Amino acid sequence: QQPVQSPQAVILREGEDAVINCSSSKALYSVHWYRQKHGEAPVFLMILLKGGEQKGHEKISASFNEKKQQSSLYLTASQLSYSGTYFCGTEDYTGRRALTFGSGTRLQVQP
Amino acid sequence: DAGVTQSPTHLIKTRGQQVTLRCSPKSGHDTVSWYQQALGQGPQFIFQYYEEEERQRGNFPDRFSGHQFPNYSSELNVNALLLGDSALYLCASSLVSGWAYEQYFGPGTRLTVT
User: Which pLDDT value is given to residue A49?
Assistant: First the structure.
């Protein structure tokens, strides 16, 4: 069962912030976030492990709530280069090291 | 540092034919996973290879098979192609050791079945 991502799509102006959510019905070991631009491969952003940690990567950070099996990706002061489709990939205890991806969140940053 | 490479880039096949896709993992990685990505969807896990064996498999029929070679490179074979097999096929490599790992994707092979 794939994780549910929300929102499905979002349009931002440069400099605005956005939050993308990922929710699973399964107990998760880790959550992986990727960004994919049209016609390209998904690019790894970060991995979050159970324990409720929060990580950051430049102006992109993420959190993982192990109790709720939810992860959120935070994009602050968005740039044009942030445009693309964001996927969360979840790893549960039945399929270790096999990622189940959500259907994606399409993010468009406009000047 | 060479990243994940895949070949060919594009492929057009006819229904019923067989196809072989190839993947070379990122330097230092020993595990290869294959994913199928339909247009507008997230990648779907096909299977994973480590130590030349299939370690895990997703919900794909036996028409999908694979192989891993001693140099960690991998092949994905699909027999009796169906129109629904048209998709972007992604290979991702990772390092199996440790409790946390990162998967890096290759550029993919775009398969079109006519």
Answer: 83
